[in-house]
Amino acid sequence: MDTRQFFANEVKPSLGCTEPGAVAYAAAKAASEFIGTPESITLRMSVAVYKNGRSVGIPGTDGLQGTSMAAALGAIAGDASKGLMALDGMDP
Questions:
Q1: 3-state secondary structure of 65
Q2: Which residues contact residue 6 at a Cβ distance below 8 angstroms, ignoring those fewer than 6 apart?
Q3: What is the pLDDT along the chain (92 residues), one digit of tens a residue?
Q4: pTM of the prediction?
Q5: Could you give the maximum distance between any two Cα atoms of the chain, in Å?
Q6: CB 74 within 8 Å of CB 25
């Protein structure tokens, strides 16, 4: 296997820690398919994602933390077309 091709396919940029980035991206993608503003979000994730993302800071949010906040931000202000960078450029 070509190493460069492998990394091009598998390594993606993320804003901050990967776990909240993935949750924000998933919420942004779901919200983009939803008509209106979501009123609630149910998160289901592996123990590893929960453990690694539960209290990590979210860049650009002045101290907000965790996967629950990442989901809310992703659903309300995220851009799913940016992938793991879904919260990049979000207006505070």
A1: strand
A2: none
A3: 688 887 777 777 766 678 999 999 999 999 999 898 788 999 999 999 999 899 999 888 888 999 999 999 999 999 999 998 999 988 77
A4: 0.81
A5: 46
A6: yes
